[in-house]
Amino acid sequence: MYLIDLGIRDTVAAALFDLGVDLGAIEDIEEDPGLGNGGLGRLAACYLDSMAAEELAGHGCGLRYRYGFFEQGIVRGRQIEVPDDWLKTGFIYEFRRPDEAVEVRFGGTVSLELNGKLRYRLENYEAVQAVPYDVPVTGYLSDTVNTLRLWSAEPSRTEFVCSAENRNDCLKTIEYKNDVETITSVLYPDDSTHEGRVLRLKQHYFLTSASLQGILAGLGRRGIPIENLPDHIAIHINDTHPALAIPELMRLLLDEHGLGWDEAWRLTVATLSYTNHTILPEALEKWPVDIFQGLLPRLYIIVNEINERFCCELWQRYPGDWDRIRAMAVLADGMVHMAHLAIVGSHSVNGVAQLHTHILKERVMNNFYRFYPDRFTNKTNGVTHRRWLIKANPQLSDLIADTVGPDWVRFPCDMLRLLPHADDPSLQERLAAVRRYHKGKLAAYIRDTTGIRLDLDAIFDTQVKRIHGYKRQTLNALHILHLYNRLKADPGMELTPRVFMFGGKAAPAYHQAKRTIRLITALAELINNDKTIGDKLKVVFLENYNVSVAELLMPATDVSEQIPAASREACGTSNMKFIMNGSVIIGTLDGGNIEIRKAVGEENIVTFGLTAEEVLAYYERGGYDPWDIYRGDERVRTVLEQLVSGFLPADPDEFRPLYDAFLHHGDQYFVLKDFAPYVAAQKEIERLYRDRRRWLGMCLRNIAHSGKFSGDRTFTEYAIDIWKLRPAAPVRCYCSADDAFARAENGCSLSARFGMDIETAPPQFN
Ligand SMILES: *Cc1c(COP(=O)(O)O)cnc(C)c1O
């Protein structure tokens, strides 16, 4: 990316070529820093890229995990987890900054001291050094270099000394050293379930305390008075994992800077903003009070005070309405509710797609929305087209530039100018050639890694994302089994050859997700080895899905599977990466899919299934009866019985828990309920694909409308609406100013507003 950002990748590649070195091979050696779990972490990386490209001074804070997200192996059809030793050969882009290290304190006891003024003091705590490693974040052809600061936990020199006389001290020192190193040793491999372990809370605090101390130290160095904090700094908390930033900033302002509560609270709320990324109940973080208080005694006092004051406000507004107050409290039922804390302590709360924000406002956080109506906004996710299009698919990028001119790179909405050419056969054939090139490249990778040979004329159908019940890889799998049954029953059946590809990691303790992988690999074994099926159907599970694998898949995919149970996927981002590369989505009306459908037009996407309203209504009624479907749909009955009858080349007991989840535990993700509409939608995909002109026109229209889903648009929205950020250099409008049509019709008006602000008014900055 650095070479692309500097605009010298081609030059460097040519120079290396002269030396007999392939730049691509060097790039392949570089490991992805696997410091995130999936969509949430990847989104942060996309936004850092957008901020640097947009010349905004936006920095990232994270943990420098010694072992990143585990590497997945597939052995005899099952997932195995291998530690991701990403630092074993060093990471050349990081700079260790011991001069900016800070101390983070855990445990201890709090006492009050009266020294002219009443102050809290923490004693007998465990001190840990937080040492920053800075990674430069460059922007595409921009002069801005931002920083991703990754904190590493190291023993504090003052903590224990190991002397020859005192063996006991030595043992303690070793124990302490191990404890400290554990804090940044591994990434928790799941953020869709709440992990209530002390180490995780330790990580949360380590990240937030170190980052805030670093930020305030920087402010001090610039001589800025603490009272002006929100005028200079905006701190955004990405989901609730860093929500401890609220009490921690209060602590620093109260205890270190000597401010009073009211002033400290005003500054805290004005500085912090929060993005909610999920409504899955199991992912909403809650910490037992005893754990919280033991690890963070001073913060607990502050959280308690925040809660008391907030509940008083609620009481004044809703006198006597105890149920409501309890439902909104930060501390209730012996738990600290992190999402509540995040809303109370931020001036802005946003969801990540229109539907998701709507559900937050009207349902999940409705109480809070009524209390703070102005805090809630929507910021639909976006992804960086520089990585997902320019880097992943340079051939398509060139084709776009040939058609609409080179400016689309800086103004991705310029891709709308492809629309008048969408039915042009010569452009369509050039696109088809680019797509075929990538399908060939992917097929070679799959042949080399799995031995499976693919027909490039087949429909390449891909579902890549974390393996999770709500994402419904199971629905895809049951449909494949059904297709196989149809082919066996009627070998002459007309069917465009199809390759179903899956990729994704299952959280190590999430057994249903692991069984889902086993189901897919069993299907692959059954179908790929069936001579009577030949090339008509293939099933591939791609090992170790990560950013590099994603870059290979996006440009080579014809059909992108975006099929979550409606209302469960807040937005999704792979849907956006796929349409940029010209894939057509088969999807449910959920999250970002809805906005993609609105942008590309309903004739250029295939949607099916229950709506979010319907799903939510079922949840309110306690679900639906899957036996109705089982009895009424023979296709469903057949595939379900095949799971447990020994039909698949795997232990039949293996899939019993999946079978039970569908039939005996209420099918909570509506797989059976959506089965029939999904089968019909898949038939529609077939029909559309067979009409080559029609299909290529759809691909081009998806690409044309994808500019709206660039992270640059999202970031501009965050910058203007939430952070009131002033760009380091004049911000460019991400739609070209002369493309009035594009701006008016396609939601680029916000950027136009940004452009206008620059021209007609001084930047908002207060
Ligand atoms: C984009 C991306 C994701 C998120 O995919 P969704 O389909 O939106 O869940 C996960 N993992 C990787 C490696 C990605 O690039």
* Ligands, deduplicated: pyridoxal-5'-phosphate
Record the strand order, biggest sheet.
19-18-17-20-21-22
Whole-angstrom Rg: 27 Å
CATH superfamily of the largest domain: Glycogen Phosphorylase B
- CATH C-level category of the largest domain: Alpha Beta
> How many domains comprise the coordinates?
2
Overall shape: globular
Q: Please state the second-level CATH architecture of the largest domain.
A: 3-Layer(aba) Sandwich
The end-to-end span amounts to 35 Å
**Could you name the CATH topology of the largest domain?**
Rossmann fold
Q: How many H/I helices?
A: 32
Spans of 5+ residues with little confidence (pLDDT < 50)? Answer: 729-766
Give the tally of β-strands.
Answer: 22
Structural class comes to alpha/beta
Mean pLDDT: 92
Helix content: 40-55%
Explain this structure.
The chain has two domains: 31-378, Rossmann fold; 385-709, Glycogen Phosphorylase B (Rossmann fold). The protein contains 32 helices and 22 strands. It is an alpha/beta fold and 766 residues long. Mean pLDDT is 92; it is low at 729-766. Helix 6 (198-221) crosses helix 8 (245-256), helix 10 packs across helix 11 and helix 17 (394-404) runs antiparallel to helix 18. Pyridoxal-5'-phosphate is lined by residues 38-39, 42, 465, 545-547, 550, 572-574, 577.
